[in-house]
Design goal:
single chain, 5 helices, 434 Repressor (Amino-terminal Domain), alpha+beta
Length: about 90
C-alpha cells in the first residue's frame, strides 16, 4: 500500500485563484520544504508520508489532509484516506 496526492490539481486551482503561474520550487519555498520532497509527493507513490509535510501542504492549499492525499492499494485503485488513517 502507498499514498498519492492531488498536488497537481491543487496547484492548478491555486494558479487560477492567483491568476499567475507557480513553480514547484516556489511552492516548496513558501511551504518550507525541500524541492526534492515536493517532487516526490507529486510524481511518486509514497509508502510512508511525512505527516508534518502533509499537514503543511494541506494548510498551504487550504484543504483537509483527506482532500490532499489518498491511499493506493496494490491494484492502483484509489481509496480516500479517512481522518483517522493518518
Amino acid at each position: 500500500m502507498a499514498y498519492k496526492t492531488h498536488l497537481r490539481e491543487l496547484k492548478l486551482q491555486e494558479q487560477a485563484k492567483r491568476g499567475e503561474a507557480m513553480t514547484w520550487q516556489q511552492i516548496a519555498d513558501e511551504v518550507g520544504i525541500a524541492y526534492s520532497t515536493i517532487q516526490r509527493y507529486v510524481h511518486e507513490s509514497v509508502p510512508s508520508p511525512d505527516y508534518s509535510v502533509i499537514d503543511r501542504l494541506a494548510e498551504y492549499f487550504g484543504v483537509s489532509v483527506r482532500d490532499l492525499i489518498y491511499r493506493v492499494e496494490d491494484d492502483e485503485t484509489p481509496e480516500p484516506v479517512g481522518a483517522g488513517a493518518l
